[in-house]
Write a structure and sequence with these properties.
Helix 1 packs parallel to helix 7. The protein is an alpha/beta fold. It is 28% helix and 29% strand. The strands form seven sheets. It has an eight-stranded mixed β-sheet, with helices on both faces. Strands 15-20-19-17-16 form a five-stranded antiparallel β-sheet, covered by helices on one side.
């Protein structure tokens, strides 16, 4: 990461690198702060640490400084209590945390703010990063506890070193920097020498405010985040930001959402990025159709990333992905591994049917939630839908549905429409529980699924 910052800082341009709610930070400022962090880490002999923060500028300085010092940094997801932070530190064996929070305290963990970290002595800063530059990136944890994917900066940064300079672009950071999607977006923007607009908290409502306030024209987010953006813009009556680029990643994309984005933002290019923390970016699709083109399975088998289907599941071989999970043996970069994404070939597309962990087992019959969501989301009056398994004493699970309805929708009629739309599905796949809610459960701006009691 430090090489991207240094390159952008050489350009004589006053543009900010990062804009947060209350400040702007330039590329030269970030380089200076990153050098100070690297110097302090080397002086203190810190080789691994966790980051508990939501300020993008501080996180970037810590990550870049760690990459220059050869220390392994790990950005934690937002934590709401001291116990959550300490639990993560214990799980990933961090005895140093860097945080501006004053409530985190433990006899076993050294908690430092950046000012304390860089105070009291320094070491010379290397001209170039070391060969080994470890990084730990946590999985989202939508279906369980997050795992730590061991990465190396040399592999993570490589796809962004050759990007063309686009200093006038402003990108919205809708992901957290603890997420691989957030890290990828950040590196893309730094590789272009452009500007990251990073509001907090990273919710759709704050994202819309930032788009309008700071002139954002490029935005990348999960499909769930974009669904909420569409709903917010329809309800608040304000200006629709004139976006030029919309990117979706992190979840399967519904056809209706693509249509809504194309209609609401007619001047924007819409791209779908398929990838994962473990493998890196698999493919980018820009044809406004959900799923991957069938040709993705027959592209160069010797490329850094290749994919295939095995028994209805997408498998990947990645030479630029993770080195392995924390606490587990390293992986062979030439080995094929299951992604956990269930897929089906429909015509000339590879359609995503959900995660293997999201399958609903109804009396021994496996039910995929995403095709059901696709049907229900097409009904007028359905603003947002989540399909998941609910525990049932007789069948093990039943198909449950939560719906966020539009303000003018009639719940009784909508319930009838949902049951009618699903009437021709196999009996096990028909919704047995339909509940109208104000919002749905998400983790990292992704829908949270899995069996519920």
């Amino acid at each position: 990461m430090i090489e991207l910052l240094r390159r952008a800082a050489l350009v004589d341009d006053p543009r900010p690198a990062i804009i947060t709610n209350d400040r702007e930070v330039s590329y030269p400022q970030l380089v200076a702060e990153s050098h100070a962090v690297a110097s302090a880490l080397l002086h203190r002999g810190i080789t691994r640490f966790g980051i508990v923060d939501d300020d993008a500028a501080r996180i970037v300085a810590l990550l870049a400084g760690a990459s220059l010092a050869g220390a392994e940094a790990c950005v934690y997801p937002p934590v709401h209590s001291v116990d959550e932070a300490l639990e993560l530190a214990g799980r990933f064996d961090h005895d140093v945390l860097v945080s501006e929070r004053t409530d985190i305290d433990s006899d076993d963990i050294d908690v430092l703010c950046i000012a304390d970290l860089v105070a009291g002595g320094s070491a010379s800063v290397p001209e170039a990063p070391p060969r080994s530059r470890p990084l730990l990136v946590l999985t989202t944890g939508t279906t369980g506890l997050p795992r730590g994917a061991r990465q190396d900066w040399s592999r993570v940064v490589r796809p962004f070193l050759g990007l063309r300079a686009e200093p006038s672009e402003r990108w919205l950071l809708a992901y957290g920097l603890h997420q691989f999607g957030g890290l990828q977006l950040l590196l893309h923007v730094l590789g272009e020498g452009a500007t990251v607009v990073a509001p907090t908290p990273r919710r759709p409502r704050e994202g819309i405010v930032a788009m309008r306030r700071f002139g954002v024209r490029h935005a990348s987010a999960t499909p769930t985040y974009w669904r909420f953006v569409v709903a917010e813009l329809r309800s608040d009556g304000g200006e629709v930001p004139p976006l030029q680029q919309i990117t979706l990643s992190g979840e399967a994309v519904q056809s209706r959402l693509l249509d809504e984005l194309t209609s609401m933002f007619p001047g924007a290019r819409v791209s779908q990025i398929y990838g994962a923390n473990e493998s890196g970016t698999l493919r980018s699709v820009r044809d406004n159709r959900n799923g991957l083109p069938l040709s993705a399975l027959t592209e160069d088998p010797d490329a850094d990333i290749a994919i295939k289907i095995v028994d209805g599941e997408l498998w990947v071989r990645s030479r630029i992905g993770m080195l392995g999970y924390y606490g587990e043996p390293p992986i062979d970069p030439d080995a094929w591994r299951p992604t956990g994404d269930l897929v089906e070939i429909v015509g000339d597309r590879v359609k995503f049917r959900g995660r293997a962990t999201e399958i609903i087992n109804v009396g021994g019959v496996k039910v995929h939630p995403l095709p059901i969501e696709e049907r229900i989301s097409a009904i007028d009056g359905v603003q947002f839908v989540r399909v998941f398994g609910r525990t049932n004493a007789l069948s093990g699970s039943i198909v449950a549905v939560e719906i966020v309805a539009s303000a003018d929708a009639d719940a009784t009629k909508l319930d009838e429409a949902v049951r009618a739309a699903c009437a021709d599905l196999p009996r096990a796949a028909r919704p047995r529980s339909i509940k109208f809610v104000d919002t749905v459960e998400t983790t990292g701006n992704k829908v949270t699924r899995g069996a519920r009691a």
